[in-house]
Amino acid sequence: MIIIGLTGNIASGKSAVSRFLKKLGADIVDLDQLAKKIQSQNVNDIIDKMEEVFGKEVVSNGKVNRKKLGSIVFSDKEKLNKLNEIMIPVMTKFVKKIIEEKRASGVEVLVVDAAILFEANWDKIVDTVWVVYIPKKLQLERLMKRENIGRGEALRRIESQMPIFEKIKRTDVVIDNSGDFSQMESQILELWKKIQNSI
């Protein structure tokens, strides 16, 4: 089994790349969805820990208010680090378990789709790392439009993440997503052919 670690910063089009890889036949582990599942099921009393660290306002009716949590952690690097300290150890256990299950069931290509791949050290549990890149100006435009937020808020969210050039330095493959969908697809198809040849 080949494990691809797919990462990229907010509004880079990482999800579109992930969807296309799924269409080609890859199995996907979406770490954002996994985080939501862990929070909604209150695994390891994670909700209590969040309430303790971020205050009562991040929990409503026993569920994490992700919008409220996002507004707190995206504007304060220290709080974001605290959130990662709470979430990453639990998520890592789940990811490792999922990888073993997929391997046992005969999956050929598994994509671990994670914005915080490097921050969580998940690059160590994959075979190859792909980073989706777009220029900051385009990233800003896409994020403002997608989330319906102002420039200042969008910049705060972008700057709360590891700089993209840091990620590029540590990656095996850079997917340039500054063009249209077909340009992105043709890059993926080339990479997919190489993977199929190596299986």
Descriptive terms for the model:
single chain, 199 residues, five-stranded parallel sheet, two-stranded antiparallel ribbon, globular
Chain-wise SSE layout:
Layout: E1 2-8, H1 14-24, E2 27-30, H2 31-40, H3 46-54, E3 59-60, E4 63-64, H4 66-73, H5 77-104, E5 109-113, E6 128-133, H6 136-147, H7 151-159, H8 164-169, E7 173-176, H9 181-198
Parallel strand pairs: 1-5, 1-6, 2-5, 6-7
Antiparallel strand pairs: 3-4
Helix pairs in contact: 1-9, 2-5, 3-5, 6-7
Written account of the structure:
This protein has 199 residues and is an alpha/beta fold. It has a single domain (2-198), classed as 3-Layer(aba) Sandwich (Rossmann fold). The protein has helices spanning 14-24, 31-40, 46-54, 66-73, 77-104, 136-147, 151-159, 164-169, 181-198; strands at 2-8, 27-30, 59-60, 63-64, 109-113, 128-133, 173-176. Strands 2-5-1-6-7 form a 5-stranded parallel β-sheet, with helices on both faces. Strands 3-4 form a two-stranded antiparallel sheet. Helix 1 packs across helix 9 (181-198), helix 2 packs across helix 5 (77-104) and helix 6 (136-147) crosses helix 7. The longest helix has 28 residues, at 77-104.
| Biggest beta sheet attributes | 5 strands, parallel
Counted beta strands: 7
CATH superfamily: P-loop containing nucleotide triphosphate hydrolases
How many helix segments? 9
Strands side by side in the biggest sheet: 2-5-1-6-7
Structural class: alpha/beta
N-to-C order of helices and strands = EHEHHEEHHEEHHHEH
- What is the number of independent domains? 1
Quote the distance from N terminus to C terminus. 8 Å
Basic shape: globular
Give the integer mean of the pLDDT values: 95
